[in-house]
Amino acid sequence: MNLDNKHLFTLTHNLIVPLLPVDLYAINKSFVNCTYNKIRNVKPFIFPFALTGASAWGRQHCRGKGYCVTLSEQKLTAEAGLCVVIPCSFTNADEFTPKHIVWYKCEASQKCSDAEIIFHSNTHNKKVQSAFQGRVSRLEPDVSQKNCSIIINDLKESDSGSYQLRVTGERNGKQDGFTFNQRVTVSVKGLNQKPTVMIPTLTEGQQATLTCTAPGLCSGSVPEITWTWRGAGGTESYITGNSTDFKTENLTAFTQRHISTLTFKSSAEQHNTTVTCKIRFTCKTTTEEASSLKVNCEFFYSLNVFVFKSTDVYSKKL
């Protein structure tokens, strides 16, 4: 499937998310039933999310004339090791020219300070928290498009909390900015998704290739994928003579699919044993999937053909 970064995915599973399929804004391994909608030329930018349960998605919140933000008021749920998208768009008064987008993470009951900045579109700003540096990106780099959506990669459970937006710029030639009171709450849980393991028909003596695909389509960092084999004795080891390969498929500017393959010659000793694909994301977040191997036997046999000629009998092996 060829995609460009000017499209968003519309998944029938739980919701819709810009540029990538997600389950409550966390990337979901499901990659089916997608349709495409143009997003870059929408002004103001509003994501048509479809959340399960009651939702106030799409409701505009304004402070003063012309200064409005469109956010989801529901809690966003994501999984550690993957990513979360916070969809956002804003409008401003004609006399204000937006220059930069700033996102904070702080207690919902408190006013956010510069010490709690997790993203600043001004790359020269040195106030971004070290724990978030390199993990947060804008989906639209052009601030004039009024798209303030961000994606946070390599999620940790400590990323759970309240997120607030501020837009800075110039009003009538002077530096100014406005902070929206509305916030988005993100809840990061432990990783529950499993890798997907594909096993072809295994025949004794023939070469076979197993495929393991990491869960999620945006982790940020490339995960480590390893294969282990548990023989009849229950001891975990590696299949003798195996070879592995790894590749990353770039689907869009923000989504990738990480795949590992295991190639080996099937043997009878592998029948009814278990192979396990283990995924290790950053911050020691891991998940695995175990699969049983069924190896078909290849039968060899000879056929004796008897040819009768006169009184002699000839035996010929085929």
Automatic annotation (TrEMBL):
PANTHER family: BRANCHED CHAIN KETO ACID DEHYDROGENASE E1 SUBUNIT BETA,-LIKE-RELATED (PTHR12035:SF128), SIALIC ACID BINDING IMMUNOGLOBULIN-LIKE LECTIN (PTHR12035)
A single GO molecular function term of this UniProt record: carbohydrate binding
Protein name, as recorded: Ig-like domain-containing protein
A GO CC annotation given for this chain: plasma membrane
Matching Gene3D superfamilies: Immunoglobulins
Organism listed in the record: Oreochromis niloticus (Nile tilapia)
Boundaries of every Ig-like domain copy: 195-296
InterPro entries, alphabetized: CD80_C2-set (IPR013162), Ig-like_dom (IPR007110), Ig-like_dom_sf (IPR036179), Ig-like_fold (IPR013783), Ig_CD22 (IPR056386), Ig_sub (IPR003599), SIGLEC (IPR051036)
UniProt keyword list: Cell adhesion, Disulfide bond, Lectin, Membrane, Transmembrane, Transmembrane helix
